[in-house]
Each structure stands twice: as structure tokens, then as C-alpha cells.
């Protein structure tokens, strides 16, 4: 293992992002409870190792849609908000049951773009996260889809929580962000479309050429975040001094492997910039 991977073992504050595509059965669109059990066990084990953990989880709209028996593709914003309201409650109920199996307390934190841009709201969010982590709680973060329309528009501001997780990592001064995706990591091209795509193990500098590799499409019919939003998340995370890894969410054991320093996924090395960089990036997301 090289030094960059080896140092992941020493990370103390870790944000893990799970997209909708990593939580459901593709045959039915319903939650994959066995995978969720593995996810929660991995996170609780990190807690037992003395690490602070924050989970950023998508899936509210998907869960609500299934609960309400809606089969059609959702187009209306109000329908999506109604599904999010039902689904968020159900999703949190499942998470609470799973975390309680390991005597771990979790909490719900719902954020919007405005939370980040307003100075007072952002300050209060930082204090809330700090207190929760000091109490040993695992905060579970999601977009507040019920009252906000930015995040559920077809051109999502946060991109299935990719960029939201990076902003959360910046807010709490996390030193590692793990994005669980439907792909093994970053490639020179879309591996779903071409056999010539070459896997990129480590990104030391995120330049314009790499940013242009991102595609607006995604391999999932459930998630909204393609590689473009993941690279945007990487830009925010590494600029705040946080290493980031994109890895395959088909196996949540990858979370533990990454934190053990194993060569899993694509590693983006921290490249800290000015403290206002993240806020400027978020403000210009449209």
C-alpha cells in the first residue's frame, strides 16, 4: 500500500455518502435490507474504532414512492415532495432500528442549499453537528426535499447528495469523504459505454481536463448524480482539506477496506484552498 492509502487508516472524522442506486433492489425498486444491514454494521464498527461518522443518505423519494404504490415516473415537483415526506420518515425508522441493533444512536439532519448560504443557518448547522458528534451520535443527513425544490429538480443542485456530502465534509472539517457509487471509481471514459475506459487509481490534482471527464448521465434509473456531480463534490471536498474516495456501493464492505488503507476506488488527495472557496462554489450551483 502506498503512503496515500496508508494514511486513510488514521482518518478521524469520516463522511460516507450513499446514493439511492446503492440502497434498492433493481428488480423492484424497494430497499435492499441486507445491504443496509452491512452498511450500518460497517459504520458502527468505525465508531467502535474511535472515529466520528456522518452518513449522507439519499432514498426518501424512492421509499415514499414505493410506500404510496406509485408506479409511474414522477414528474410533478409536488408529487416528489409528498413522496419525500412519507419516505424520509420510513427511511429514518429503518435506520434507527438497524443502528439500535449495535446500541448506536443516530439522528436526522435535513439541509437545503439555503442552510449553507445563510451565515446564521450555517453557523447553527456547524454547532449542531459538533454537539451530535461529541455525544457519539451518527448524524444521518439528507436534502430537505419536502420544502425545497432545488434538490429535486431535474438539474439537481446537489446531485443525489454528492455535492451535499462534500459541503457537509467541509462544514465539519472531515478528513475523509467516501462516495459510494454504482461504479468502481473514476475512469478516462464511461465504462458502461466503451471498453477502452482506463481506471484512475489516484488523483493528485483535479484539473480542468479531469473535470471534463464527468458525464451528466448516470447508470442508474433511481439516482440523479452522475460522475459530473462526483467530480464537483471532489473539488469541494479536497479544497477544504479532505481526502475523498469514489468506490463501488454494490459492496458496503468497501467502506471498511478503504479505512484500512486498501486499494479500493479512486482516491482524490486533499488540496486545501481559501476558506471561502466552498461557499463560492455552492452559491454558483444552479
Automatic annotation (TrEMBL):
UniProt KW keywords: Amino-acid biosynthesis, ATP-binding, Cytoplasm, Kinase, Nucleotide-binding, Proline biosynthesis, Transferase
Record-listed ATP binding positions: 17, 181-182, 224-230
GO molecular function list: ATP binding; glutamate 5-kinase activity
PROSITE patterns linked to this entry: GLUTAMATE_5_KINASE
Pathway assigned to this chain's UniProt record: Amino-acid biosynthesis; L-proline biosynthesis; L-glutamate 5-semialdehyde from L-glutamate: step 1/2
Principal localisation: cytoplasm
One term under GO cellular component: cytosol
InterPro entries cross-referenced by the UniProt entry: AceGlu_kinase-like_sf, Asp/Glu/Uridylate_kinase, G5K_ProB, Glu/AcGlu_kinase, Glu_5kinase, Glu_5kinase/COase_Synthase, Glutamate_5-kinase_CS
Residue stretches making up the Aspartate/glutamate/uridylate kinase domain: 12-248
Protein family: Belongs to the glutamate 5-kinase family.
Record-given protein name: Glutamate 5-kinase
Organism: Bilifractor porci
Amino acid at each position: 500500500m502506498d503512503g496515500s492509502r496508508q494514511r486513510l487508516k488514521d482518518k478521524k472524522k469520516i463522511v460516507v455518502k450513499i446514493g439511492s442506486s446503492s440502497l434498492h433492489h433493481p428488480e423492484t425498486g424497494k430497499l435492499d435490507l441486507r445491504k443496509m444491514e452491512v452498511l450500518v454494521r460497517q459504520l458502527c464498527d468505525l465508531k467502535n474504532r474511535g472515529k466520528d461518522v456522518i452518513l449522507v443518505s439519499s432514498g426518501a423519494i424512492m421509499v415514499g414512492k414505493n410506500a404510496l404504490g406509485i408506479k409511474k415516473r414522477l414528474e410533478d415537483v409536488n408529487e416528489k415532495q409528498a413522496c419525500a415526506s412519507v419516505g424520509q420518515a420510513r427511511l429514518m425508522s429503518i435506520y434507527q432500528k438497524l443502528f439500535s441493533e449495535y446500541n448506536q444512536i443516530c439522528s436526522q439532519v435535513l439541509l437545503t442549499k439555503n442552510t449553507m448560504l445563510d451565515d446564521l443557518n450555517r453557523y447553527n448547522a456547524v454547532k449542531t453537528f459538533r454537539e451530535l458528534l461529541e455525544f457519539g451520535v451518527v448524524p444521518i443527513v439528507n436534502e430537505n426535499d419536502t420544502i425545497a425544490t432545488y434538490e429535486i429538480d431535474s438539474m439537481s443542485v446537489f446531485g443525489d447528495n454528492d455535492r451535499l456530502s462534500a459541503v457537509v465534509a467541509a462544514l465539519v472539517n472531515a478528513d475523509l469523504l467516501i462516495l459510494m457509487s454504482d461504479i468502481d471509481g473514476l475512469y478516462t471514459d464511461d465504462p458502461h459505454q466503451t471498453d477502452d475506459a482506463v481506471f484512475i487509481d489516484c488523483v493528485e490534482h483535479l484539473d480542468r481536463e479531469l473535470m471534463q471527464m464527468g458525464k451528466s448521465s448516470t447508470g442508474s434509473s433511481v439516482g440523479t448524480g452522475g460522475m459530473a456531480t462526483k467530480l464537483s463534490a471532489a473539488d469541494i471536498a479536497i479544497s477544504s482539506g479532505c481526502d475523498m474516495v469514489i468506490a463501488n456501493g454494490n459492496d458496503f464492505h468497501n467502506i471498511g477496506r478503504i479505512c484500512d488503507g486498501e486499494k479500493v476506488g479512486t482516491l482524490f488527495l486533499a488540496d486545501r484552498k481559501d476558506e471561502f472557496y466552498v461557499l463560492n462554489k455552492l452559491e454558483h450551483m444552479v
